[in-house]
Write a structure and sequence with these properties.
This protein has 193 residues and is α+β, with helices and mostly antiparallel strands. Helix content is 45%, strand content 13%. The chain has a four-stranded antiparallel sheet with strand order 1-2-3-4, with helices on one face. Strands 5-6 form a two-stranded antiparallel sheet. A hairpin with a 2-residue loop joins strand 1 and strand 2. Helix 2 crosses helix 5. The N and C termini lie far apart (85 Å).
Length: 193
């Protein structure tokens, strides 16, 4: 394991790999982070940025946080808080992963890509007709937003894209016609009218 040292960190390549790993200290603890690059220059730039952020007291953004990580954070949060909607989380992230890719780095997802996701889901063929409803897409986006918030709280990310929900027009329609309602009211006893 040969590496280049810089201040409180180093860049190295493990045996048998072509990509570099960063190693630096945060509050006296050693942190290792995969860079995803085989360029020593890019790895050194990442290390300099990490060491500078640590020195300035800024949170360090983990570059390897994926949609799978967000799903795990949301599931754990929902379990801890006893949320009944926990059963919807895997389905929401299944649709998100099908579009973005399960191993997609969430720091690379932009607001523009989220808008494209909304359009895709609304146009997608569905078992009950064309496209997912606005409410369904909103539940998926709400799970994604919660995942980003939890990742920021945990220190995995420093920011998130803007995620705007769709407007929902799901007001229930009456099941009884006006004439039927009048006949029904006429048949009721006086104390129920």
């Amino acid at each position: 394991m040969s590496g280049s040292h810089y201040g409180q960190g180093c860049v190295y390549r493990q045996r048998g790999t072509t990509r570099f790993t960063l190693q630096y200290m945060v509050h006296g603890k050693r942190v290792r982070e995969a860079t995803g690059t085989s360029s020593r220059k890019l790895a050194m730039e990442m290390l300099v940025a990490r060491v500078a952020a640590v020195g300035a007291g800024k949170p360090i953004e983990r570059s390897s946080t994926t949609l799978s990580d967000l799903e795990r954070l949301v599931l754990d949060d929902y379990k801890l808080n006893g949320r009944k909607s926990i059963r919807r989380v895997p389905s929401a992230f299944r649709h998100l992963a099908a579009y973005f890719g399960k191993s997609k780095l969430v720091r690379e997802i932009t607001s523009e890509q989220i808008t494209s996701y909304k359009l895709h889901r609304k146009a997608e063929k569905h078992r009950q007709g064309d496209g997912a409803s606005s409410a369904t897409v909103n539940r998926e986006l709400a799970a994604l937003k919660r995942g980003y918030s939890l990742a920021i709280e945990a220190g995995y990310l420093t920011s998130r894209p803007i995620i705007k929900l769709l407007s929902e027009d799901n007001a229930r329609q009456g099941f009884v016609e006006a004439g039927d309602l009048a006949r029904l009211l006429a048949e009721l006893p006086g104390y129920l009218r």
